[in-house]
Amino acid sequence: MQSLRSIALSAIGLLLVLAAFVFTASLGLILAGLVSLAMIGSALSARFSAKPAPVRARSNSYSAQAASNRDAARNSGREPRIWNDGRGTIIDL
């Protein structure tokens, strides 16, 4: 009778450990699935989002050098451009 009780308790303990393992593994798989869905959504969002348009900047300084630089830029047909490409601000003079 004593050995039957110990076998039953061992079997119950083994089943509890197995159930805990299955529960933990299923939670891990669910978490991995959610993270992968978030990464796929982020990649698709980045692919289909609109690209930032460059912003044209003009000098507001009234010094003689700035005025001559501004006139030279106007005469050459090129204005300085400032835009952010997502990794930092770019200033194209």
From TrEMBL:
Region (Disordered): 61-93
Basic and acidic residues bias locations: 71-84
Entry superkingdom: Bacteria
Name by which UniProt lists this protein: Uncharacterized protein
Organism: Xaviernesmea rhizosphaerae
